[in-house]
Amino acid sequence: AQSVTQPDIHITVSEGASLELRCNYSYGATPYLFWYVQSPGQGLQLLLKYFSGDTLVQGIKGFEAEFKRSQSSFNLRKPSVHWSDAAEYFCAVGARNTGNQFYFGTGTSLTVIP
Amino acid sequence: NAGVTQTPKFRILKIGQSMTLQCTQDMNHNYMYWYRQDPGMGLKLIYYSVGAGITDKGEVPNGYNVSRSTTEDFPLRLELAAPSQTSVYFCASTAGWVDEKLFFGSGTQLSVL
Fold this sequence. Notes:
The complex is a heterodimer of chains A (114) and B (113). Chain A is 0% helix and 54% strand. The relative contact order of chain A is 0.33. With 114 residues, chain A is mainly beta. Chain A is globular. Chain B has no helices and eleven strands. Chain B has strands spanning 4-7, 10-13, 19-25, 31-38, 42-51, 54-57, 64-66, 76-78, 87-94, 103-104, 108-112. The radius of gyration of chain B is 13 Å and the shape is globular. The termini of chain B are far apart. The chains are: A mainly beta (114), B mainly beta (113).
């Protein structure tokens, strides 16, 4: 069965520090992987996606993610965090073999300390 | 473009009442989804549709119904509201298959008391 695990419920970083949010997936075929960000009271916005090609993908707002098939991971990174990055981050996998469904992780809440 | 529009933004229901959450998109997307978001649980898929006239159950469909009579509209119906349905509901759509991003509405916060 398809599933997405985000091991970190909450992360706190200082402004200017680097960030890595972890995501592991379980999927039997080639995964379509996404990172979304949710600001308070808002819907989700796509940060980046991967489905083929270069395993290091660049997204909006300076984020990047690396797909590692051997580790079933798709971790999100940012070299220098800004206070405006404080939000909830969701990893998701798109599953073709279940009728075009998307499965989301439980999310990681990011707090940025000035 | 307005994108994905959900109404209402907030609603309080009494146990046993019914209501419909409205969702409309103006991007001519074939694929539409309803998710519920509970604290610490992420987003769970309730129902989805791959085109007008076609709907299917997701992970947590019990207590809900949907219809898709047009490409634009995908309403979610709660027939007999229960406290377990207290949640934030998001409608989303996408143009293509699972390699395309989802466009989300701003959500409906529902409380059942």
